[in-house]
Amino acid sequence: MGMVARLSLIDPASKDFRSEGCRSILDIIRFVHECSMREMFSMGAKGSSGGRQARKLASNLPLTFYVLDVGGGLARDAGDNRVIDIEHVLSLPMKAFWKGLSDPAIRWSDAEHFAWGDYDAIMLAGGVAGRDSAALSSYAVFASDYMNLNVRFGYHFVQVDALAGEDAAHNFITFRFSGGGGNPEGRMLRSKFIGAVLTRLGFKVNTTGELVDAQLKHEDKETILSALVSVGRLAGATRLMDMYLSPDSSPDIMAEEFLAGRSDFSSFYQGDKK
């Protein structure tokens, strides 16, 4: 344990989230990444160079999402609008991921069976980062055939980098899932479930505790886009999963159900494994 560096800079909205609060190399990396993302998306920095390009993506999902087009990712009729709809997005990877994330079968608010008093930060946002909290926003940088996004859900993060072009030799998806607000066993079961789904989708997966890293490479455009739809749906379906999975939950069985179309696993809280 003496070789483990504790992350001190956790909450970007805290007054202590500043350079003086760094206690390790990990803190420095976290601080620099957060500052660069804020600058890129002009999150309140007056005169920020990124402010002329970042747009807020309007949706019914309980997420604050900012996007930055770096070439061919937005339709011309988006104009200079600061708030855009997904219909303005031309980026194929972003549209595919969003299609999965916004699947109507995903339940975003029906979670009354949770002990919300134990998860006060999540309670305020229904289980995800607050709609009006810039410090806890999600971000995407995209072009017509490329996407890099960071989605922040209450206590965990999803990062996806993807290229879906005409040349399969260059196409890829890299996926990272980390964090969680449930108990260690629930977080581990969720990561096993995510790993099982991605493995079945053809990803090369490495799972360590609650951390999942996965890659899919050298596939044609259609395969990449189809996988991104599933990855988006997976991100939404696993939002609170670490809080209700029990020791007898089977990640493999759940993975098969997910691939068969199931997106809501909240009934597992009540012991329904069907």
Domain count: 2
Runs in which pLDDT lies below 50 for 5 or more consecutive residues are 43-52, 111-131, 270-274
Helix content: 25-40%
Beta content: 15-25%
**What's the β-strand tally?**
9
Give a quick summary of the entry.
28% of the residues lie in helices and 19% in strands.
Q: Can you offer a commentary on this structure?
A:
The protein is α+β, with helices and mostly antiparallel strands and 274 residues long. The chain has two domains: 13-52, no CATH class; 59-270, no CATH class. Helix content is 28%, strand content 19%. The chain contains seven helices and nine strands. The protein has helices at residues 25-40, 92-101, 120-123, 184-200, 221-237, 241-244, 251-259; strands at 55-57, 65-69, 83-84, 138-142, 146-153, 156-163, 172-179, 204-208, 211-217. Strands 3-1-2-4-5-6-7-9-8 form a nine-stranded mixed beta sheet, covered by helices on one side. A hairpin with an 8-residue loop joins strand 6 (156-163) and strand 7. Helix 2 packs parallel to helix 5 (221-237) and helix 4 (184-200) crosses helix 7. The longest helix has 17 residues, at 184-200. Residues 43-52, 111-131 and 270-274 have low confidence and may be disordered.
